[in-house]
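Example 3.2
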Amino acid sequence: MIDLRPNDFKNEMIGDFLLIDVRTNDEHKEGHIIGSVLIPVDQLEKRLCEINDFREKKVLVYCRSGARSNMAAGILKQNKFKKVFNLIGGFIGWQSFGM
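Structure, written as tokens:
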């Protein structure tokens, strides 16, 4: 897992990648990074089969502040996802950089 600041995180959003919002449905509805797929962290292990095609590709995860996405990144790494990136500061950090 690699922790990235918003600018570097955005730079990884090219090519073939999956962007996962691990917050709640309500948080996602209030605002999210365009193109993200909502898989709340408490559902991630049960839903890994939905994202199996990305085990060898980039998977970028974020939450509100970075704590839940760090947990999600750990789950992904434990389940053999190779290229996992976590957004430092989460969606709050993303917004503060004007993204």
